Amino acid sequence: MVESSLQTGYVKHAPGFVENEGPKLITSRFKHADSFTLDKYLSTGGYEGLKSSLNRSPGQVHDEVREASLLGRGGAGFPAGIKWGFPPEGVWPRYLVVNGDESEIGTYKDRLLMERDPHQLIEGVLIACYALGLSQAFLYVRGEMALAQERIALALDEAYEAGYIGKNILDTKFSVDVVMHWGAGAYIVGEETALIESLEGKRGMPRLKPPYFPAAIGLYGKPTIVNNVETLSNLPWILNNGASAYKGFGSESSPGTRMFAISGHVKRPGVYEVEHGVTTFRELFYGDNFCRGIRDDNELKMFIPGGGSAPWFFQEQLDLPLEASAVGAAGSMLGSGAMVVMDETTDAVKACLSVVRFFARESCGKCSPCREGTTWEEKILQRILDGDGRPSDIDLLLDIGDNISPGPYPAAAFSDEGLDAVPFPPSQTTICPLGPSSVAPIVSAIRRFRNEFDSLITRRDPIPLSLEVEKVVT
Amino acid sequence: MAFFNEENEEIAKEIVGRYPVARSALIPLLHLAQEQEGWITKPAMEQIAELTDTTSVEVLGTGTFYEMFKFHPVGKYLIKVCTNISCQLLGADELFEHVKTALDVEEGSTTEDGLFTFEEAECVAACTEAPCFTVNYRYFHRATPELFDEVVVDLKAGESPLSKGCADDQGVMPKHGTLSRVRQQIPKTRSAGIKHPEEIKGPPSWIEEVV
Fold first, then answer.
1. Cβ contact, residue pair B141, A161, below 8 Å
2. Is residue A221 part of a domain?
3. Residues A78 and A192 in one domain
4. Which of chain A's termini has less CB crowding within 10 Å, N or C?
5. Are A220 and A300 contained in the same domain?
6. For A44-71, how does the pLDDT look when each residue is reduced to its tens digit (9 = 90+)?
């Protein structure tokens, strides 16, 4: 029987997580082979946060979360406690949709949280439902993540059986159903209004704004809170230990810890739980406690600091702290916590195309600047790479980018040029940020490595300029 | 004529019952249909439309948006090779070319024996274990051409290659269409009760709304 053998844990954890030194708020159970079972969860302090919540009024629980300044971990970094306050008064029912449709390039913290500690997520879901009076919760797991779906389904069954979910939870008046839902392969569904459309059984296309937050009009036209898996996984710890203890970690504006997935040309790639705001990129890439340097001790050429949508950073940004405001002011974002490190052997044009092609394929097709623009970007980059580029192509690429995202595109600061960064996020002519995201790698690559584009177009060897910077009017 | 077999029809009805509005079950039911048949057939769409209170055109229109749904027969094993940035940096292009040559098919098509369909994948969320490929959405990490060949040998011999995959899975490789091998069960006695949104007027019982 598949179920029982899955339950006894013969399917081991998928690799990826690296246990290092430092505070472990949400990954404390990851080291156990049976971390996904209810038994293990209960023996390691599980569901205590829920019990502690049920002893308080829903309003008090909400206050605790607001006080903790827990920032959303999906990409935008919006404070969860404030988002929770958006549903208009007197409108019921209200729903919770858990965003587990993790598909951003380089990102995979949520998959590990769902696979390794599903009960922690479920407890977070229950705490949110209790605090906000939500009628039902939907756990939207990305379609391709079969193992995560298995672990979540098992955990939900166990939690129902044991009385943690369903009618009269732990013999209180609190009753809620949690349903696992799964997607079918569409990156755009990670956008919260597209997620809701998909959950309603429609094509996953983002809704026109306003309303800006589905907290006003969401699932079935009712107030809906959409929270990321990692955000909710923090709740049990916060309710157990209190907001002030939570703020003891990280920096003032970004408390707690975050999960970062660092991939690419580093010696020890992995997903790490890192104290928010105090660690720098340099420590993360070179530190013994983290990635231990670039492969073959090569030079770092560039890195993506927060998912494929983020403008690239270079050596001079290595000493920035991992804090949303600092990274934003420098012209990029921490986004989904995905970093891709590229060493000196990397072809900048090829890397750029790889990221752009992703957005071209994943564009939902609703807004023409993105639907047409991303495809053009892909085609032009492909022909440059194939050696068929035209001299006007570089300007054309920037022009298309300007149509999707008018005005100066956020870019990393070039201090040696006396240039300040244009802070993130960019302006957009589209409903959602997918289109502008495709502009990030293009602006980053052209600004810094224009010589590589030029050499492909003119079919001459590049003039070695990799450490110098050329001015580009964007 | 009904598409779903008796067992799956029960499951389908149960899934519809979990949602306040039937249409929400549309994507899960498409998965169920794909699990039964390997791809989405016309009778499947017609029955899903009946079950979710939509039309078969709406089912088709929704389904085609999502790339996991196949509207034509595909191989027993769907092989997807990730070529996105993290994998590309560590050799995905070579792996991609190898798979193409080894299976002797173009990307997006199926081998003549109907065993394998080969597709290029978008980021599969295993970037630190690059390069990756998946077989029926089961992960194979830090993949080499040799690992891929071993997996193909196993599959051709009717053996499960899952233990060579990421999670030392001793189970049987499910056929294309099966995602989770476990289905969530909500016991009727434990359910809080699913209601249509219009049937709910006020806050739930544990909330005392401040007026």
1. no
2. yes
3. yes
4. N
5. no
6. 999 999 999 999 999 999 999 999 999 9
Query: What average pLDDT score do residues A345-357 get?
Result: 97
In sequence order, what are the residues at sequence separation of 6 or more whose Cβ sits closer than 8 angstroms to the Cβ of residue B191? A166, A167, A177
Range of the domain at A415: 257-458
Nearest partner of B23 among A226, A208, A220, judged by Cα: A220
CB proximity B119 to A under 8 Å = no
CATH number for the segment(s) B6-63: 1.10.10.1590
User: What is the ipTM metric for this complex?
Assistant: 0.96
**pLDDT tens for the 211 residues of chain B, in order:** 699 999 999 999 999 999 999 999 999 999 999 999 999 999 999 999 999 999 999 999 999 999 999 999 999 999 999 999 999 999 999 999 999 999 999 999 999 999 999 999 999 999 999 999 999 999 999 999 999 999 999 999 999 998 888 777 778 899 999 999 999 999 999 999 999 999 999 999 999 755 4
- Which one-letter amino acid corresponds to residue A178? V
Domain boundaries, chain B: 6-63, 77-164
Interface of B with A in 32-91 (CB under 8 A): 52, 54, 61-63, 65-69, 83-86, 88-90
- CATH number, domain of A179, equals 3.40.50.11540
The closest CB to that of B192, out of A142, A176, A271, belongs to: A176
Instruction: For residue A122, tell me if it sits in a domain.
Output: yes
- The CATH code of domain B77-164 reads 3.40.30.10
Query: What is the token pair recorded at A93?
Result: 């029912």
A354: closest CA of chain B, how far (Å): 6
pTM as predicted: 0.94
User: What angle, rounded to 10 degrees, do the helices at B145-156 and B92-103 form?
Assistant: 30
Q: Which residue has the tokens 């194979």?
A: B140
Q: Which residues contact A97 (CB under 8 A, 6 or more apart)?
A: A137, A138, A140, A192, A195, A196, A199, A214, A218, A219, A224, A225, A226, A227
Gap from A323 CA to chain B (nearest CA, Å) = 22
In a domain, A230, yes or no: yes
Chain B contact probe: residue of A179, A187, A262 with most B CBs at under 10 A: A179
Torsions phi, psi for B15 (to 5 deg) = -65, -45
* Nearest-CA distance B113 → chain A (Å): 25
In a domain, A9, yes or no: no
Same domain? A128 vs A206:
yes
